[in-house]
From TrEMBL:
<keyword id="KW-0325">Glycoprotein</keyword>
<dbReference type="InterPro" id="IPR002902">
    <property type="entry name" value="GNK2"/>
</dbReference>
<keyword id="KW-0732">Signal</keyword>
<protein>
    <recommendedName>
        <fullName>Gnk2-homologous domain-containing protein</fullName>
    </recommendedName>
</protein>
<dbReference type="InterPro" id="IPR038408">
    <property type="entry name" value="GNK2_sf"/>
</dbReference>
<feature type="domain" description="Gnk2-homologous">
    <location>
        <begin position="22"/>
        <end position="129"/>
    </location>
</feature>
<dbReference type="Pfam" id="PF01657">
    <property type="entry name" value="Stress-antifung"/>
</dbReference>
<feature type="signal peptide">
    <location>
        <begin position="1"/>
        <end position="20"/>
    </location>
</feature>
<keyword id="KW-0677">Repeat</keyword>
Length: 155
């Protein structure tokens, strides 16, 4: 961790910049599948519409699941979003909204996907998040290796 004093002024600086500029796309990963059902794709769409709405009124993170209509639940989608801890309300939604559109564009056939911006992240998967979802450390962007570890962690 960065010492608190330095970290606070650094955050303030970042927040000032973030308020004035559009969020910056950093990275995405799509695990594609040719076997996706239309129900699964519909659920992904529902999830991505939920993240946009929820990010405006939440504390900057949340997760949910969109269940299938069938009893096996094999079309269920589990997803989360997180904005950096100092980003909420309008700014969080602005980033999440951009990220959701980009995710749809970049990952049209993904069973699991993740997209990172400088100040927010969206992720979804077809497997239930086991236990507690750790949200804040994932915004510690340290490159692709870290992202792959996360995928294994949460699914
Ligand atoms: C981010 O992650 C790296 C590698 O896991 C770690 O060394 C570093 O201390 C972390 N930074 C913060 C601010 O948590
Ligand atoms: C998944 O599909 C997208 C869009 O077609 C492509 O850009 C991406 O490279 C694919 N991902 C993998 C891991 O193959
Ligand atoms: C988080 O999402 C759940 C749905 O999964 C919703 O019921 C709840 O109100 C949301 N919380 C906030 C703070 O937005
Ligand atoms: C999730 O998708 C993968 C890849 O398509 C599949 O192998 C796995 O069985 C699915 N898991 C669930 C819980 O549906």
């Amino acid at each position: 961790m960065i010492p608190i004093g330095i970290s606070l002024s650094f955050m303030f600086l970042l927040f000032t910049i973030a308020s004035a500029q559009p969020p910056i796309y950093m990275y995405n990963f799509c695990e594609n599948s040719t076997l996706l059902s239309s129900a699964y794709k519909d659920n992904v769409e529902t999830l991505l519409s939920w993240v946009t709405t929820d990010s405006f009124k939440s504390n900057g993170y949340n997760y949910t699941s969109v269940n299938s209509n069938n009893h096996n639940n094999d079309d269920a989608v589990y997803g989360l979003y997180s904005c950096r801890s100092d980003i909420t309300g309008y700014f969080c939604r602005f980033c999440i909204n951009s990220a959701a559109s980009e995710l749809t564009r970049r990952c049209p056939n993904a069973v699991r996907a993740i997209i990172w911006y400088d100040i927010c992240i969206i992720r979804y998967t077809n497997q239930s998040f086991s236990g507690q979802v750790s949200l804040s450390p994932i915004l510690n962007i340290t490159g692709t290796r870290k992202i792959k570890v996360m995928f294994q962690y949460g699914t």
